[in-house]
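It is time I had a proper look at our fold encoding. Can you supply me with one protein entry, sequence and fold together? It will help me judge whether the discrete encoding reads sensibly. Leave the record below and I will have a look:
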Amino acid sequence: MKNKKNNKQKSVSALIATILLVVVAVALIAIILTWGKSFTTDSLAETSNVVDTSCTGAAITISDCQIDADNNLTFFVKNIGSTYSFLTADAFKFDLTDNSGNFASNVTMSTYTTTTWAGLSPGQMIKVDYNRTAGGVTGDYVNVTVKSSICTSDAIAVFKNCHK
């Protein structure tokens, strides 16, 4: 009789041990999932401050670049972005390099626009006239780079081999 009683007690204690292990495992899983959820939520909230979206949609292009008989350089800058408007405070600059190695750097574009600089709305275009001889750029071909002072990595345009 004693034998049966001991076997019964051993069975009960093994069953209790198994149930306790399952309960502990479930509790650990619940704790890890709760921590993981709060960790990812907090991490994602912090990433919104990392990306600068102020220049999203800012894009420009240069067209109709020509050098006339008086050595004036004429080109058009157009806002090709669909939503971004360049403000009057955005001091566009342009760089010129000719095939002889002469260059003009960081020339303020608004000084040479044919109309008063008032920024560029989407689709708007502005004409730039620059006396390249006065600026020391006298070669036969000129490369023109225009860049925004506010959206420096988003709004850059290059026109290569502008000539007569």
Remarks:
- DSSP finds one helix and seven strands in the chain.
- The chain has two domains: 1-51, 60-162.
- Residues 1-51 form one domain.
- The radius of gyration is 35 Å.
